[in-house]
UniProtKB/TrEMBL annotation, chains A, B:
<keyword id="KW-0028">Amino-acid biosynthesis</keyword>
<comment type="function">
    <text>Catalyzes the oxidation of 3-carboxy-2-hydroxy-4-methylpentanoate (3-isopropylmalate) to 3-carboxy-4-methyl-2-oxopentanoate. The product decarboxylates to 4-methyl-2 oxopentanoate.</text>
</comment>
<feature type="binding site">
    <location>
        <position position="221"/>
    </location>
    <ligand>
        <name>Mg(2+)</name>
    </ligand>
</feature>
<feature type="binding site">
    <location>
        <position position="107"/>
    </location>
    <ligand>
        <name>substrate</name>
    </ligand>
</feature>
<feature type="binding site">
    <location>
        <position position="245"/>
    </location>
    <ligand>
        <name>Mg(2+)</name>
    </ligand>
</feature>
<comment type="subunit">
    <text>Homodimer.</text>
</comment>
<keyword id="KW-0460">Magnesium</keyword>
<feature type="binding site">
    <location>
        <position position="221"/>
    </location>
    <ligand>
        <name>substrate</name>
    </ligand>
</feature>
<feature type="site" description="Important for catalysis">
    <location>
        <position position="142"/>
    </location>
</feature>
<dbReference type="GO" id="GO:0003862">
    <property type="term" value="F:3-isopropylmalate dehydrogenase activity"/>
</dbReference>
<keyword id="KW-0479">Metal-binding</keyword>
<keyword id="KW-0464">Manganese</keyword>
<dbReference type="Pfam" id="PF00180">
    <property type="entry name" value="Iso_dh"/>
</dbReference>
<dbReference type="InterPro" id="IPR019818">
    <property type="entry name" value="IsoCit/isopropylmalate_DH_CS"/>
</dbReference>
<dbReference type="GO" id="GO:0000287">
    <property type="term" value="F:magnesium ion binding"/>
</dbReference>
<dbReference type="InterPro" id="IPR024084">
    <property type="entry name" value="IsoPropMal-DH-like_dom"/>
</dbReference>
<comment type="pathway">
    <text>Amino-acid biosynthesis; L-leucine biosynthesis; L-leucine from 3-methyl-2-oxobutanoate: step 3/4.</text>
</comment>
Length: 350, 350
């Protein structure tokens, strides 16, 4: 297969972990006889520094023309805590999601048996956890009208959803549930929010076309408890943008190793794959960042194009590295392996 | 001291746990020579059933005239999952908060050493956890304009905050931090929301009047992780309404026993005290509901009126019941003690 892949390393540890993912994709090319073309561009803080824009035009163009985007991370402390900053790295990511129409963010939450003791949660609570969060990514309060009055004393954000925005992601989530354990949980705040009531109505209606899937509902506050109290009860969770941001990060602690979690953001015409960890600027250039999340993002990319055997080869190589303890220090304090060595080991085992 | 206390038992297990709190207040009256007057009214589903209104006028009037409100719980499954229901029990609670001007919800999160093994989290993660969440309660997306178009295909909720709404709760939170460990964490989403940027600006400015308090900021998604990964890092958390709803329920799992957690909702002229658990309809009338959260709510009530010694007597009686294992089955499967017995034990030990 021929694939054009846009590489957006971004900030902090983004470039170094992305390098490892590319190594693995190259190993896949060789082993399975594919032809991937990689083109790189700036995004985030580095793009602001170099071009004054967190998402420069040529970066967006590159992404639109590519078959898929492989993303590193964005964010730099110098742009945080500055409420008056006119450009922020995050704007680049949000604009990219919107412009590419990436309306669904998919985040698998799984416990790796070899690492079960790394979790802050007790083993008996998390064992068997294996769910996927479908988070709406281009609507809601992230993209609704923002206002601030002239005196700077009243500010607002609008959370708006249309039936169309809800139904397109709902179909994807129901299909995912059909391919898994036939359970879909809608997380909302329908006892308070009008937009949540629309979500409930639309999702309930769509559920009639998926009779094999059991649909249930959870208020977001209760969901925030259940994810910790009994995470193995979930199969597919569907939710709106802001709630998804919160509960998917919450879910990421279950496995005890945020450095292992990948995500896909998909739309009708494009797809982007990224580790869920941030830019972790303190670790930049130290060869200590865990490359596994980025590598597993490349596995999600392969699956997206139907290359299941290839993705499996990547996942098996990752499992092998975990089993053999070829891991970065975040997973094992005593480990001597760096980002590059772990990347090499995994790539060599594909 | 003379106090007029409005009792709002509400739904489900509300009435039976509230009874135990009243027992304890009566014991305090006797022991410390106070005079509390109790008047009861309907709220929630039972108020809809009896009066067609989740917050009947006479209930609101009673609360306004009282010095404080002691609340049970609200909610009934027959009103859930019905997006078309015209009246919902929750509306009663929201209206009560708004009408009484209860702009600050205070939720202590603490680990009871005797119960540390009940937590889904590992002991070493949670030991030493002792923080308090200050959640804004009468603004934000809960109370902003709600819209749905005529076709029922587009719905929205407005999240709006004014400087005034932010500053009044911020002062309370800074004062609380001063009386604790001098650390305040503002949880927001200032990298995305205009209203969050206003929160950051206002809270930063107010912080200058509390130089002894260290102020830091955490994005809500990161906060949702940190609360589980390292809960003992927090002292006072300040946040807006919706984020507070989610992270305070998330925080409630740390101690492993939601049946122990109390909350206060305070304003300039009134105050309401309630357990954070819900109406738990499945347990209604079975004499198995844990009365401790309701009893500790009454301790918060006493503290609110400066009756610190009295509150301490209640807390010590609670500790004694926990240490002696005089607890309901939620804390110990093998326990034979019911709601009433636990309430009696605690009241008798005041
Ligand atoms: C960086 C930020 C804008 C972003 C979000 O809130 O969506 C991030 O937290 C994420 O979840 O991808
Ligand atoms: C019942 C509901 C409206 C309420 C809220 O969301 O505020 C509850 O969850 C709470 O936290 O007190």
């Amino acid at each position: 297969m021929n694939l054009n892949i846009a590489l957006l390393p971004g900030d902090g540890i983004g470039p170094e972990v992305l390098d490892q993912a590319v190594k693995c994709l190259q190993a896949v090319e060789e082993t399975f006889n594919h032809n991937f073309i990689y083109k790189e561009a700036f995004v985030g803080a580095i793009a602001i520094d170099k071009k004054g824009n967190p998402l420069p035009d040529n970066t967006l163009k590159l992404c639109k023309e590519a078959d898929a985007v492989l993303f590193g991370a964005i964010g730099d402390p110098k742009y945080d805590n500055n409420p008056n900053a006119k450009v922020r790295p995050e704007q680049g990511l949000l604009k990219l999601r919107k412009e590419l129409g990436l309306f669904t963010n998919i985040r698998p939450v799984k416990v790796f048996p070899t690492l079960i003791d790394n979790s802050p949660l007790k083993k008996e609570i998390i064992s068997g956890t294996d769910f996927t969060i479908y988070r709406e990514l281009t609507g809601g309060i992230y993209f609704g009208e923002k206002k601030i009055n002239d005196e700077g004393t009243v500010a607002s954000d609008l959370c708006e959803y249309s039936e169309k925005e809800i139904s397109r992601i709902a179909h994807l989530a129901f299909k995912a549930a059909k391919n898994r354990s036939n359970k879909l949980t809608l997380v909302d705040k329908a006892n308070v929010l009008e937009s949540s009531r629309l979500w409930r109505k639309v999702v309930t209606k769509i559920g009639q076309s998926y009779p094999e899937v059991t649909l249930d509902f959870l208020f977001v506050d209760n969901a925030a408890m259940q994810i910790i109290l009994n995470p193995s009860q979930f199969d597919v969770i569907l939710t709106e943008n802001m709630f998804g941001d919160i509960i998917s990060d919450e879910g990421s602690v279950i496995g005890g190793s945020i450095g292992l979690l990948a995500s896909a953001s998909v739309g009708d015409e494009n797809a982007l794959f990224e580790p869920i960890h941030g830019s972790y600027p303190q670790a930049k250039g130290k060869d200590i960042a865990n490359p596994v999340a980025s590598i597993l993002s490349s596995a999600m990319l392969l699956e997206h194009f139907g290359l299941f055997e290839e993705a499996m080869a990547v996942r098996e190589a990752v499992d092998k590295s975990l089993k053999k303890g070829i891991v970065t220090p975040d997973l094992n304090e005593k480990s001597q392996y760096g980002t590059n060595q772990v990347g090499d080991f995994i790539a060599n085992n594909i």
